[in-house]
TrEMBL record:
<feature type="binding site">
    <location>
        <position position="260"/>
    </location>
    <ligand>
        <name>[Ni-4Fe-4S] cluster</name>
    </ligand>
</feature>
<dbReference type="GO" id="GO:0042542">
    <property type="term" value="P:response to hydrogen peroxide"/>
</dbReference>
<feature type="binding site">
    <location>
        <position position="46"/>
    </location>
    <ligand>
        <name>[4Fe-4S] cluster 1</name>
    </ligand>
</feature>
<dbReference type="InterPro" id="IPR016101">
    <property type="entry name" value="CO_DH_a-bundle"/>
</dbReference>
<keyword id="KW-0004">4Fe-4S</keyword>
<dbReference type="GO" id="GO:0043885">
    <property type="term" value="F:anaerobic carbon-monoxide dehydrogenase activity"/>
</dbReference>
<dbReference type="GO" id="GO:0006091">
    <property type="term" value="P:generation of precursor metabolites and energy"/>
</dbReference>
<feature type="binding site">
    <location>
        <position position="47"/>
    </location>
    <ligand>
        <name>[4Fe-4S] cluster 2</name>
    </ligand>
</feature>
<feature type="binding site">
    <location>
        <position position="50"/>
    </location>
    <ligand>
        <name>[4Fe-4S] cluster 2</name>
    </ligand>
</feature>
<feature type="binding site">
    <location>
        <position position="519"/>
    </location>
    <ligand>
        <name>[Ni-4Fe-4S] cluster</name>
    </ligand>
</feature>
<dbReference type="InterPro" id="IPR016099">
    <property type="entry name" value="Prismane-like_a/b-sand"/>
</dbReference>
<dbReference type="GO" id="GO:0051539">
    <property type="term" value="F:4 iron, 4 sulfur cluster binding"/>
</dbReference>
<dbReference type="GO" id="GO:0050418">
    <property type="term" value="F:hydroxylamine reductase activity"/>
</dbReference>
<feature type="binding site">
    <location>
        <position position="296"/>
    </location>
    <ligand>
        <name>[Ni-4Fe-4S] cluster</name>
    </ligand>
</feature>
<feature type="binding site">
    <location>
        <position position="55"/>
    </location>
    <ligand>
        <name>[4Fe-4S] cluster 2</name>
    </ligand>
</feature>
<keyword id="KW-0411">Iron-sulfur</keyword>
<protein>
    <recommendedName>
        <fullName>Carbon monoxide dehydrogenase</fullName>
        <ecNumber>1.2.7.4</ecNumber>
    </recommendedName>
</protein>
Amino acid sequence: MTKKFEGSDQVSLDLLKRMKESEIESAFDRYDLQQPQCGFGQLGLCCRHCQMGPCNVDPFGRGPRRGVCGADANTIAARHYVRIVAAGAAAHSDHGRSVAQLLIAVARGEAPGYRITDTKKLFEVARVFDVSTKDRKIEEIAEEVGEMALAEFGKAYGTQKFATRAPINRQKVWEKLDVTPRAIDREVTESMHRTGMGTDQDYNNLIMQACRTSLADGWGGAMIATELQDILFGTPKPTRGTANLGVIKEDEVNILVHGHEPQMSEMIAVASTDEELLNEAEAVGANGISVAGVCCTANEMLMRHGIPLAGHMKMQEMAIATGAIEIVTVDIQCVMQADVDVSGYYHTKMITTSPKAKITGAEHIEINDENAYEKAKDIVRMAINNYPNRDKSKVFIPKGSKSQLVIGFSHETIKYMLGGKFRASYRPLNDNIMNGRIRGVAGVVGCTSSTVWPDQQPYMELVKQLIANNILVVQTGCAAAECGREGMMVPEFMENAGDGLREVCEAVGMPPVLHAGSCVDNSRILIACSEMVKEGGLGNDISELPVAGACFDWMHEKALTIGHYFVTSGVFTIFGTKTPVAGAPVVDKLLCEGLEDIVGAKWAFEPDVNKMAQLMIDHIEKKRDALGINVKKERKLYDMADRRALEVEGSTVQAGCEPGIAHSHQKKD
């Protein structure tokens, strides 16, 4: 390792130091060994899409300017970009497909252990899908909703139903550009087709397909996943939880769940409370069974059940390296193959559960809708039986490494907290943005990766700067996990907020940094933006709102897809990395400038966290200026003579009305 073991995240650094001393290779070691990485690949100028390649285009003009087929830098970079977006859309959307299939199985009584939890959300989704609810059983409604959701992936005609939830003006932009997403699978397939040799060779046309494909994820597959998971497992509500490696118990059987689809982790959590299994754990000398999460599975379990979060993606090896994990159970996405090697140094067993994601060296126990609970019990029992094999000399759980946090801020929760049960509304949020207490809203989301060391904490610095400038922050994914374990998601953290934001947080009783869920739950932020437009006073489209999005440390392809569907939805979005099309300045200019004229928003790429924060602040203030809410309006106190002089459409203003505020057609004689 080239870095010294010192810095702000001492918990992670201590674990890495122990791994180094034990000669256990970490992701950070492997990153160092990869240096220098391929410069052509980093610039988006390496094409492997046919057997005449791979082709590299020299951006400096000293080497080849075209691939063998004649593709130039703009075509190669745009194709590369579209394929990233398609892969990310496929990942989140396939997640949504699995949830739709589970909902159908639950409705038919074919998935023991699962149940329909949120019938209110079921009725809301049924309305979007035009599913009749009158005089029908819940199971009948749920089955048809599941079937309608499943049809969104491969229907022959029409566009995504959830796209109708966007503001009408945003829908018109999409229709004009012909980027309203059609069947989800069609968009992914067409993207792969277009980017193959000899097909689409116009970078503008390719980027428009990236827009449509990303929308098929954000307003399609990912939104289906989030909404149907709420129906099945419950819509998150604010609750307290704990995070960081200190949640791992030294005297209990520890099971680590990792991945993204909550089907597996939900059943593991239920099985861990089984009385028979708890007795078996006691019989082998353990004081209980503890379940903790990593990555987005952790976010799912934390916000619905308060099950503790051990860490974000780049901490998975460190969690195993505590030496106190009996079993690591994984499903899909963001799982490192090297986890098997790290587990092998300890007594830890690694279990894969999805037929889509097997790992050489790990044991496979497939969990499906029909056998989930029984297989979960088998896995918990394996963990119990492995507990006596733990080598106590290898156990190292950092002391004091546990933080409190408040999670579960779905867009329904935000409406409820602001307006109450009978008048749930975004009105107080919009009002406080208009009066300036809150300058705007920022979504700080995304991945963590081994390209950024633990002693560098850009997400925390970015969030601190935003809330200090009275910008409310909403987080998802591993970015949320990183800030949560640093104690930034409790009401007490409002001390770091500006006066206006702090005043609102104190009144409502919420943190200035809101945990909204896993990476698939970015769809909650899309719906929240639509609700803000619907509420009125902040423009007629998402592109007019004083909002911005950021991901400092993107790692998985789906992160770029998320960023692109936010841009195409009208949200200025900034990533803390170099642009993925750096070798094609024309395409880069389209993404970072030209798209604003086309879809109303644009990209930015800025590795400096201070500059990133300022870009977001400046953008929000620019949107406030455009809305006219930065201009202080003169207030006039009307005496009785003034009031008598006012007329509203020919009739005298009634006592009690505020002239100039309550009516829009007022005039003086």
